[in-house]
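new request in #modeling-help
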Amino acid sequence: MSPLPPVAIDFVNFLIPAGIFAIIALGLNVQWGHTGLFNAGVAAFIGLGAYTAAILMTGPAPATNQYPGHLGGFSWPFLAAVIVAMVVAGVAGLLIALPILRLRADYFAIATLALAETVRLFFTNAEDITAGTIGIILIPRPIVIADPGLSDVVMAGLVITTLFLAYFVIQYLTKAPWGRVLRGIREDEEATLALGKNTFRFRLSAFVVGCIVMGLAGAFLAAFLRFVTPTQFDPLSTFTIYVMVILGGSGNNRGVIFGAFLFYAFDWVSVRVKDFLPASLQGPIPYVRLMVIGALLVILVLYRPEGIFREKKRTYPPVVRE
Amino acid sequence: MNRDLVVVLLVIAVFTVAMWTVYGVPVLQFLINGVVVGSIIVLGATGLSLIYGIRKFGNFAHGEMMTFGAYMAFLISVSFAMNIIWGLIFGVFMAAMLGILFELLVFRKLAGRGPVAALVASIGIAIFMNNLINATFGTQINVYNLQIAQSLVLLTIDGRPVLTINPIKGLATLAVSAVLIIFLHVVLSRTTLGKAMRATSDNPDLARASGINIRNVILWVWAISGGLAAVAGVLLGIVNDVRPAMGFSILLFVFAAVIIGGIGSPYGAMLGGLIVGIAGELSVALLAWLGRPTVLGLDNPTAYRPVAAFVIMILVLLLRPAGLGGRRGPTLRTRRILRVPRWAKRERAQ
């Protein structure tokens, strides 16, 4: 019996996923919000982080003939697994970006989506490594404590600390000259090029930084859910992150964190509201929830593309043209 | 015939011959399957390409238009127990209306906001439509109320059928696609509407200045695109089955076909669709032969079928960014020359 009241457990179980989504949204904000790179393969990078962490952290697979088993049995500590997950996601981002980063935004989106689907095909079919559609199970918590409630609280603390760390690092980076060049690229790549900036290198570094952050969040996601399957990393999850970023305000780091929490709160409520409805209405609720996501995306793009928190305008006195 | 095309056809030919040495005659079965799948992709791709040409964005809701058309036909075919032909007609009509609705409600308001805003909106529409279908029709796998005839045997070796084609799933699909492509060609090249469509796609300002009502032309393009998507959806429903994810699962192939053929070029999209279909099936042949290393799941030859299309798409994007049949290129480098400077645009707006 856990010493914590059920409300606290509920709250902690809200805080962890919301915090993880906020970290992913921060990573995407570097790519999309600041640099204007439409990465439609977010799910693949989260998935790479999650699978890497899952493979490294799990102990030997249970010896039943129902479970096919996977590459693993390393029982690494969480910190080491997180670092490797970040490296794997970053390297994958680098390899994927190098050939296709030159493409214009909409082509880049299609190419990244195709590559993300390829990664997901790999998760689904490379059964020796990933246990196929069944996925990797029995992933331990970051800090293993006998009491499940307490170990959730510790994990929530860890996620929120990481979120703050990620926020400060990304806020620092995007306020620094590096971030200024990124916004220059987003607004007018030719002008930035004309100022002598190697825009390709800046785009590449922004993409890789974003992917590393997504890999980090993926490792946390694996440790939170305690299992990973290929269907968690479908294109829909990518677009959910986009809703969070656009809702909060692309380009505003605090805004996207707020967007992630607000959106996850909606998600949380929509899952819970099911229990209070008559049985006849319960069936379509998950679809109605997703319909709201889709409609929200359209409405935001149409009527409030800057999101709830507008990106802070950093204006300088204009050059007067005669 | 340009050089790229010759290279592509040569690659396919060499590949087929190489597989022939492994499999013998049955490799032709892969080609037949590839052409049938390709002809469905062609129908989706020409519609997507028309929208890309006239609205300048990638419409991610195109797959959902296919699914919608397929489900409308399902409604007529199963719920009302009528002939699938009526279902097809109803599906085409409803999907055309849906396309017009998209334009009126969303994309007209996003004109001039760049390709990404419209792309994000189309993703939102795709999620919305997909789950509307999930909620109304359920997620189960359906089939049309249709008698599928016995496959025709084209060739037998030692009394075993080696090459087969199904009269409904294969021949009828090919025939419908061919008729529609000829129809589209006639519309584009012989009618006033087609000329107006091409003019609007090339240069909307100039088209408007010459007295073309481009708003109406764009609505027509949406209707044609939706109608073609519905036919593709119904054919896909006949060849495979009807399920909510059918549209999105083929969407990336359709995009690959559009990109291979060159954005905004419906003729290129036809070529691209066939290339995607054949390449996918040939890759199955290749993987079935390579299937010894079981590490990546290569022992399941159809598992990685989409990858062939993606690889070709990315190669085309890198080597021939304008596609094998288009003119405009998607990379920043080619755009740089054509782009109007920002200050000039601002002055023009004032």
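bot summary: Chain A has a mean pLDDT of 88.
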